[in-house]
Amino acid sequence: MIALSADQLDFVTQRRLATLTTLRADGSPHVVPVAFTWDAGAGRARITTRVTSVKASNVERAVTAGASARAALCQFDGQRWLTLEGGITLSRDTADVAEAVDAYAVRYRRLEFQAERIVLHLVVDRVMGTVR
């Protein structure tokens, strides 16, 4: 499990957006802006989205095919940046989704109920960036 430094932890808990990169079926990158929260206890980032989103479909397709899905999450502010890479999974579990929604409300804002909401978990195994 990756533990972020104090500066990195501060950086990923400030109210900013990031980009999430997943891979399409043809191997090309799908890059989209996302809001995320950091779960320090599990060394993972949480991204809430709709089950019908392309990013969710990319993750689900890879996992269904028996491959391990990987992704990169990059947050930046001017010349300061941090990229978190690792395996990514999709959860429809209501407790996982509720936990992600609660964490999102603390960092960003309260989310309206959405029946299609799922959570992507990015379990980080590599950290790069200028934030040390």
Quick gist of this model?
The protein is of the alpha+beta class and 132 residues long.
The CATH superfamily label reads Electron Transport, Fmn-binding Protein, Chain A
Number of helices: 3
Task: Detail the poorly predicted runs.
Answer: none
Sheet/helix structural class = alpha+beta
- Give the N-to-C terminal Cα separation: 17 Å
CATH architecture: Roll
SSE string, helices as H and strands as E: HEEEEHEEHE
Characterize the main sheet: 7 strands, antiparallel
Taken together, the total number of domains comes to: 1
Question: What is the number of E strands?
Answer: 7
Question: How much β-strand is present in the residues?
Answer: 35-45%
Rounded radius of gyration (Å): 14 Å
CATH class: Mainly Beta
Mean pLDDT: 94
Helix content: 25-40%
Spell out the key features of this protein.
132 residues, alpha+beta, Pnp Oxidase, Chain A, seven-stranded antiparallel β-sheet
Give a verbal description of the structure.
- The protein is of the alpha+beta class.
- The chain has a single domain, classed as Electron Transport, Fmn-binding Protein, Chain A (Pnp Oxidase, Chain A, Roll).
- It is built from three helices and seven strands.
- A seven-stranded antiparallel β-sheet has the order 2-1-5-6-7-4-3.
- β3 and β4 form a beta hairpin.
- The mean pLDDT is about 95.
